[in-house]
Amino acid sequence: MLVAVANPGRLVASITVVGESVDPDEISKLMGAPPDRSHRVGDLVSPKRSSAARRRSGLWSISTEGRLHESASLSDHIRDLLYRVTQNAEVWNTLAARHNTRVFVGWFMDRGNEGASIDPDILAELGRLSLVLDFDVYSAPPNEEEARARQG
Question: Is 103:73 a contact under the CB 8 Å cutoff?
């Protein structure tokens, strides 16, 4: 049975490894890939500002931003991320025991009712690699008719 699902508006996905003891160089070696973003505990939050705010946790992250079209399927976003890192479950299980490992999805809705599906092979692979799937969903902006109706 094929179920029709409205395509999501815009998606951006990332794999993140976060924790107090994250060493981006070590994670890069284990992943076999450099990060798109990284920092260590104690790094300045914004080196461009004079603020002395420091990072409380380390981060290693790769993203689909700028690599895949935002309207690509959710499975394609996750598949792209998994393709770029090691598939060694032992490495991932070790990382998951020490740090917070996840696939993070930012979903920016264009309409009030959207949906997406994830292919079974992707779900199985996330489980095998001990990766949590985490979503932030941003609602669609109200259209002009809805805004006028609310105003009365």
Answer: no
Residue among 87, 96, 86, 83 at smallest CA distance from 132: 96
Q: Which tokens go with 142?
A: 């109200």
pTM, two decimal places? 0.79
29 within domain boundaries: yes
1-33 confidence digits (pLDDT tens): 444 444 567 888 999 999 999 999 999 999 999
Supply the angle between the helices 24-31 and 89-98 in degrees, to the nearest 10.
Answer: 160
Q: Is residue 150 part of a domain?
A: no
Residue written as token pair 């609602």: 139
What confidence tens digit (pLDDT) does each residue in 79-120 have? Answer: 999 999 999 999 999 999 999 999 999 888 777 777 778 999
Residue 79: inside a domain, yes or no? yes
Range of the domain at 26: 10-141
For β-strands 58-63 and 37-39, DSSP reports them as: antiparallel
Q: Transcribe 90-125 into DSSP letters.
A: HHHHHHHHHSEEEEEEEEE-SSSS------HHHHHH
Counted domains in the chain? 1
In a domain, 77, yes or no: yes
